[in-house]
Amino acid sequence: MAPVAESNVVLVTGGAKGVGRGISECFLAHGATVIVCGRETPAELPAVAGRRAEFIACDVRDHAAVEALFATIAERHGRLDVLVNNAGGAPFALADKASPRFHEKIFALNLLAPLHLAQKANALMQQQAGGGSIVFIASISALRPSPGTAAYGAAKAAVLSLVQSLAVEWAPKVRLTAISPGPVLTEHADLHFGDAEGVAAVAATIPLGRLAEPRDIGEACVWLSSPAAAYASGTNLVLHGGGERPAFLAAASANKTS
């Protein structure tokens, strides 16, 4: 893999926990200067081999806070080479029970906030000789039914469309890509999959036999941001361990393998 230059400045939204922490640690390991942002100061910042991420408080849904975030980055570093739009998520809520306000918040966090962040990053990157790279963390929920998180899946599907459009608008200086992870094993896996038995049961449905680790997503972000992926733009990298075995195969009475 082509390395990320040590001079590269990388912003990872929501980069202090979960998938974001894995992304931050991978960029640190590859030599980048990493900035993470979030609403609350984390108890422990991502660190690798004595190198530690910087933290800037920011609610990515707050336009004024985002303006201040990028002003601070410009003042401290004078540049931004990579933005990883990672912050997002949604609690379980059936669509017929969720309120309009709930759905508005899901779209604000998972679609509108990343768009605003990308606009601000692009403004900096267009001024740089080497341009920059923006990676959106989407989801497999954008590509298949997402019962219980319907608005989230729809927002992530919109993100994939957004990436294609921005890749055209902002070329050639700025490259736009997306990564769509399947299930990921984080410290909050129990909220989605239950206890260890539930996690194991979910892993058994994945051809590679395990959930993704945050590092799997992080290394993909590093690659997409590196010179090795210089021709990748407007594309979506699906990381789901081989996908899901079609349910009809288990239900059908023909062509059983055991």
From TrEMBL:
Note one Pfam family from the annotation: adh_short_C2
Instruction: Name the keywords, alphabetized.
Output: Oxidoreductase
Q: Where is the Ketoreductase domain?
A: 8-188
Which terms in the Gene Ontology molecular function aspect does this entry carry?
oxidoreductase activity
The UniProt entry, under SUPFAM superfamilies, shows: NAD(P)-binding Rossmann-fold domains
Q: Which InterPro entries match?
A: KR_dom (IPR057326), NAD(P)-bd_dom_sf (IPR036291), Sc_DH/Rdtase_CS (IPR020904), SDR_fam (IPR002347)
Which SMART domains does this one have?
A: PKS_KR (SM00822)
Q: Into which family does the record put it? A: Belongs to the short-chain dehydrogenases/reductases (SDR) family.
What protein am I looking at?
SDR family oxidoreductase
Taxonomic source organism:
Stagnimonas aquatica
